[in-house]
Structure prediction request, 264 residues.
Amino acid sequence: MSVLREKAGRSAHVKPRASAAFYDLDGTLCDLNLVHSAVFILTNMGQWSERAAYALSFLARAPRLYLAERKDRQLLNEVLFESFQGVSADRLFSLGEEYCERVLIKHLYPQAVELIRSNRELGFEPVLVTGSPDFIVAPLARHLEIEHFAANHLAMARGRANGRMARPVMASDEKARWCTAFAAQRGISLTSCWGYADSYYDLSFLSALGHPVAVNPDPKLRAAALSRQWPIISFERPSTIERELADTLDGAIDSTGSTDDGAA
Prediction:
């Protein structure tokens, strides 16, 4: 099932907010994507020999990733998650924390952070609804002080990822279904909720909410938003993906020489 997390220690008598604002993550709140996070995780895994093996395995999937990105967002998630087969849950969550601290937080759009703050002050409960994995989304949610999120997670066998995604996969229509269930559990009307996303794949997610907003939309979503008279907003990028990816790869190589087996 998809992941739903709530901040530990939340009092049961706290009055729920009257409505919610649902946010996609990749491309909406930050200028990164699933492929970038996968590369970071794989290039920071274990000893150099293990990193090389994971990287080669990832490169072998590159043609499938290319096709999946253009055909089906769920398929893209499934192909990416295959790369983590055999990795322990503890290691994934440790690397997720590191990725969030070293990379993801730096790539949040400042305007997006301000949007979350403003909506919260207006009484809208912030909720992350994303296809990113839970071991990356959980530390980000803590950083943003967001109590609830939906994310994908890997199926595990004996504490290690088996290369498959747990069902249902948080993509496309499943995002809309999750928001509907979330609102129903809390007595919230979806017509009063706001939603923010950047991709045409999120059209059903946005359509389920009373106040959809296209953020940095791709061409198809922009066209759909214009035809439906949805608001369109653009956030300035804090930095480029290409530069951060190069820094990530360089850092992985440098750390290998200085830390692995204690030898340069």
Observations:
- Residues 48 and 69 are 29 Å apart (CA to CA).
- Confidence is low (pLDDT under 50) at residues 1-15, 255-264.
